[in-house]
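Table S2 (text version). Query chain:
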Amino acid sequence: MAEILKESEGSPIRSGFFNRDAFKKKSRMIKVLESGVAGLYYNVDLESQEGRTLLDSLTPGTELMLLRDTDNEHDRWAISVYTMDKTKIGYMTKYKNETIARLMDEGKVFHAYVDEKRQIPDDPVTYRRTIAPTEGFEVCFSVYMED
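Corresponding structure-token output:
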């Protein structure tokens, strides 16, 4: 009995396995924005076979990269949109990018995924409220922030 007590000295009283990793904060993804790619026609030649193939490969669920474009002379909050193989397809529209750009500058991590194509709303009031003038609807995407 004395041997058992000596072996248990310094160990916790409770028995069983305590997994510290189970109590670490789990990251989650928060959807923050839906948008269409702006400037698609300037970055991808949609008339070429290569451009059409690229567009066809952007199916719903395809991951996109968002990179801060701090050297952009036209928009100080510019965020470039790339495919995962580093092909630039355009920008996040300048009417929706400032908050995300500020958060990116502070170190927040964002992920983007291609959505289904959206239909343009018939109601002109809804259209003006939800759609930026520079958005294209060939490639729609959702932006998620890691929390």
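Notes on Table S2: Residues 118 and 137 are 6 Å apart (CA to CA). Helices lie at 2-8, 40-43, 49-57, 98-105, 124-130.
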